[in-house]
């Protein structure tokens, strides 16, 4: 797709689409950048929700995609989207190759009511993310940290490579705080770098290990990533006697 000339065609009266300005762009890994958006009409949201961005080309062609909100509700009106650059990707390609701070896009947010968590919901909580599927889970972790919550949470994060891990330092820092947050890392196309990390795809044993990091049975499990990743992780959770009733999933696509 050629360069899009973005419009600010969002209707003022609509509560759905609104213009949002890119205030900053930060590299998070080799393939992922965070885009900080200042909505013209600030909104509140819950950790785990997503937004839809819409781009409009000069000829009127439009493309829209969903992106999870990486920031926590407590972090103010500017929302962070962490977008992975997919080869040939229309919208992710725009964000990575063309978008600049100061550009305006259209945003509809917040969206989604099933994949949300608040410290008030309690725990223990299992979070399982594959690749960019970790984004809404990081929002939950940030929300938990900003509320100084010690709800038991374990994150199982599957990343292809060490250098593709998103929010790596932040997650390691959370682990260091020793406040009830536990972390299990696996890199599927890279060597394990730390003692206890894994270097294979998620399997039954890794799910059992993850569940055992919690002080009790999970109250809720949140699984996010590609369709096959979510299918696989949910399947292993159920094999480990986790009720499907407490497994919530968010699928990013193929
Ligand atoms: C609720 C929700 C939340 C999402 N949150 C995020 C997020 O936080 N960060 C993020 O990077 N993405 C997220 N996505 C995925 C995002 O919406 C787009 O699908 C993705 O950015 C690809 O769009 P594109 O226009 O760049 O690629 P397209 O032009 O649509 O596709 C390009 C190529 O990539 C393939 N492809 C499309 N989507 C994916 C995918 N998800 N994984 C692998 N290959 C794919 C297509 O088959 C095609 O071959 C989310 C999706 C949903 C439904």
Q: Strand sequence of the main sheet, in spatial order?
A: 4-3-6-1-2-5
Mean pLDDT figure: 94
Alpha-beta classification? alpha/beta
Spatial shape: globular
Order of helices and strands: EEEEEHEEHEHEHEHE
What is the β-strand count? 11
Radius of gyration of CA atoms, rounded to a whole number? 18 Å
Largest sheet: 6 strands, antiparallel
Unreliable residue stretches: 1-14
Distance between the termini: 20 Å
The H-level CATH homologous superfamily of the largest domain, spelled out, is Nucleotide-binding domain of ferredoxin-NADP reductase (FNR) module
CATH top level of the largest domain? Answer: Alpha Beta
Give the percentage of residues in beta strands.
Answer: 25-35%
CATH architecture of the largest domain: 3-Layer(aba) Sandwich
Could you explain the architecture of this structure?
The chain is an alpha/beta fold and 254 residues long. It folds into two domains: 95 residues, Elongation Factor Tu (Ef-tu), domain 3, CATH 2.40.30.10; 133 residues, Rossmann fold, CATH 3.40.50. 20% of the residues lie in helices and 31% in strands. It has five helices and eleven strands; from the N terminus they run E-E-E-E-E-H-E-E-H-E-H-E-H-E-H-E. Strand 8, helix 3 and strand 9 form a beta-alpha-beta unit. It starts with 16 loop residues before the first strand and ends with a strand. Bound molecules: flavin-adenine dinucleotide. Flavin-adenine dinucleotide binds next to strand 4, strand 5 and helix 1.
């Amino acid at each position: 797709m050629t360069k899009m000339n973005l419009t600010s065609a969002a209707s003022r009266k609509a509560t759905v689409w609104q213009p949002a300005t890119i205030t900053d762009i930060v590299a998070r890994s080799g393939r992922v950048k965070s885009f900080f958006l200042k909505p013209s009409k600030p909104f509140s949201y819950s950790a785990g929700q997503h937004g839809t961005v819409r781009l409009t080309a000069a000829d009127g062609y439009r493309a829209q995609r969903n992106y999870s909100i990486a920031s926590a509700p407590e972090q103010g009106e500017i929302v962070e989207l962490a977008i992975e650059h997919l080869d040939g990707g229309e919208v992710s390609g725009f964000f990575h190759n063309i978008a600049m701070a100061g550009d305006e896009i259209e945003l509809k947010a917040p969206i989604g009511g099933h994949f949300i968590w608040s410290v008030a919901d309690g725990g223990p909580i299992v979070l399982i993310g594959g690749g960019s599927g970790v984004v809404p889970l990081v929002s939950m972790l940030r929300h938990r940290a900003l509320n100084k919550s010690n709800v038991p949470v374990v994150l199982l994060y599957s990343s292809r490579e060490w250098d593709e891990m998103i929010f790596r330092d932040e997650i390691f820092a959370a682990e260091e705080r020793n406040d009830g947050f536990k972390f299990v890392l696996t890199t599927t196309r890279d060597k394990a770098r730390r003692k206890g990390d894994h270097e294979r795809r998620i399997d039954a044993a890794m799910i059992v290990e993850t569940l055992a990091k919690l002080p009790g049975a999970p109250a809720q499990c949140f699984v996010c990533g590609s369709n096959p990743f979510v299918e696989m992780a949910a399947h292993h959770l159920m094999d480990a006697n986790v009720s499907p009733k407490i497994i919530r999933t968010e699928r990013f696509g193929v």
